[in-house]
Amino acid sequence: MATTSSVPKYPTGGAGGVKPPASYGNRSFFARNPSALIFIACLAVFTLVVTLASEAYGGGFLSTSFVKTLGKTLCLSLVALAMDLIWGYAGILSLGHMAFFALGGYMIGMWLMYARTEEIVVTALSQGGLPATPEEVTQGIANQIFGVVGSSDLPAIWSFAYSLPLQLSLALAVPGLLALVFGWLAFRSRVTGVYLSILTQAMTLALALYLFQNDSGLRGNNGLSGLQNLPGLGQTSQDLVSIWFFWASALALGLGYLTLAWVVSGKFGSVIRAIRDDEARVRFLGYPVEVYKLFLFTLTALIAALAGVLYYPQAGIINPAELAPIASIYLAVWVAIGGRGRLYGAVIGAAFVSLLSSLFTSGRLPDIRLGPLPLNWVDWWLVILGLAFVAVTLFAPKGIGGLFDRFLRIATPDRKGAPLGPDDGSLQEQEAQQ
Amino acid sequence: MTALLEVSGVSVTFDGFRAINNLSFSIGEAELRAIIGPNGAGKTTFMDIVTGKTRPDAGSVTFGTRSLSLLGLNEAQIAREGVGRKFQRPTVFEDQTVEANLILALKAPRGPWRVLFWTPKPADMARVKALAAEVGLADHLHRKSGELSHGQKQWLEIAMLLAQEPRLLLVDEPAAGMTPAEREQTTALLVNLARTRAVVVVEHDMDFVRRLNCRVTVLHEGAVLAEGSLDHVTRDPQVIAVYLGRG
Questions:
Q1: Is pTM, for the whole model, over 0.95?
Q2: What is the DSSP letter of A89?
Q3: Is the pLDDT at B83 greater than 50, yes or no?
């Protein structure tokens, strides 16, 4: 991807001293996207520091549970990247992407739970002296997993749970197909704007309500648990497992960032930003707008699912509440606070807000006495987050990422109102009429 | 002369209001045509039908030598067949550079996969530069188009239309908001364009239409009232009664 020639064949001579935005030309990918290189470098340093401070490979300054929190944060940053692609770049405010994230988690959770239970059942049955028959093992697994919802049969959707490759491909196929079918129905009818947001909310809510039922085959509101115990690695300490997952999450985030930076840097990025700004005009240029939207919706659903696959083994438990609409709304809040339409903004927003959230809701911060009304951080965190969201929307629409523009002195025209509509050309208009 | 666009017997009703009433219209491969008519005559609806934005209740619209029906196609497919449309207000992508705007419009495959792996070839960049030079924006390629003046945006949009290489160009009130000098330039451009393709100009301004010096179609209440040279239609008593008489 990176070639040695960094001399622009088509010099970028911006007018008026304004730094020209990334443009076309035969320059290398990193020369056109310096922020991608900086991001990868920061991520690598961060990974190294955490590794050296972990219980498993270093001084043990960071507890294993905190390493898990950091690993989960990287996964959330990856979903935020997907959200930024579809919302920040293409202008499609999906409020259902955490459904794809959770579905990915459920799919990998099924294998983790099945394989782990299988180990336990086989060990237990072999206590009797005779090796257990496959039927006995299957029955034992079903009893173990589904006893909690009063059933002893393995539902049909668990047919592939014995195999990691099969279940991994389901972890992408199920959310991907759902996004494809849902997106096709929605975009084909040209549902846009707030109506699409409502539709995606309805989708994630419907899924959550379905999964809450005991006979959905995924243990109802109990969800899947014990996911932190990897099958075959029962003797391996969580210190090691946590750092492995941290590495995997960092790798996924890095690759995801590079892929999306490449996607948005070229003509494709230009098309989707054009769709965000004026989709009717893009149609008259001959671009199949609906196909682009469906492509993006499915691509981002797949990225979300991948993030979920890495997230839930670190979280250890998944239940239908993870698909509640509020989860997807949080996702939008992270991206808005971090800064829409720039990939690093999404990562900063997700990392910053979700880490602050786990700090404030941990219950370890002391209450502040303000006269008769004690300020309890756990209770007030949501209020603070809500106010921050409103404040960012009103006063800093570019989010935290907008601060980088200040440092780089990228001038933004000071305009009011949403559409940058045509000016009246008032003088010319008068002249023409005279 | 074979017709490039053939509209016949088209009718559209919006909530009981007949916007287009049994309209028939045709234009040849390389022809300039002006459409005039009072407000509400159906000029914009006519363009909407040809570009696929509005589906007619009755009638047929065929395009090209193969007489392809445009009625089953969506806006993007019609645009890919070679119908370009210029709106009255300049609609360029203000958040993107002049160069990016032109590259978006450049004739090239439009599907997501092909676009994802598209990289500019030297010929493409040369074409972008040539187009920008043609409309006087050569020095502004790397500026955001939102920074351009109203007139420059109009020219950028015209350059984008040229980049699409359409066979039929529909232009809505090109003279609105232009200085007399710019009108002169626009007239020359449209006349020149019509040597190689069909150009339909919808215009209110009779002076501008006179300068175009082409066949004129007068619309009234969604149907063709008269057709011919400007002098011919302006002598038509019906036209005088419904349109010119008011001015």
A1: no
A2: I
A3: yes
Separation between Cα atoms, residue B60 and residue A58, nearest integer Å:
76
Tell me which residue of B86, B53, B85, B80 sits closest to B68, measured CA to CA: B80
ipTM of this predicted structure: 0.89
CA of A100 vs chain B CAs: smallest distance (Å): 22
Beta-bridge partners for B7: B25, B61
Q: Does residue B39 sit at the A interface (CB-CB below 8 Å)?
A: no
How far separated are the first and last CA of chain A, in Å rounded?
58
**CB pair distance less than 8 Å for A23 and B112:** no
Number of neighbours of residue A325 by Cβ within 10 angstroms: 18
CB A117 within 8 A of CB A319: no
CA torsion A131-A137-A143-A146 (nearest 10°) is 150
Tokens representing A246?
Answer: 């941290």
At residue A424, φ and ψ (nearest 5 deg) are: -75, -20
Helix crossing, B180-193 with A426-433: angle to 10°? 80
Cα distance between residue A211 and residue A170, in whole Å? 17
Q: Kindly determine whether residue B91 and residue A424, on different chains, have CB atoms separated by under 8 Å.
A: no
What is the Cα–Cα distance from B114 to A238, expressed in whole angstroms? 45
Chain B residues whose beta carbon lies within 8 Å of the beta carbon of residue A274: 93, 96, 104
**pLDDT tens-digit readout, B130-142:** 999 988 899 999 9
**pLDDT tens for each residue of B93-108:** 998 999 999 999 999 9
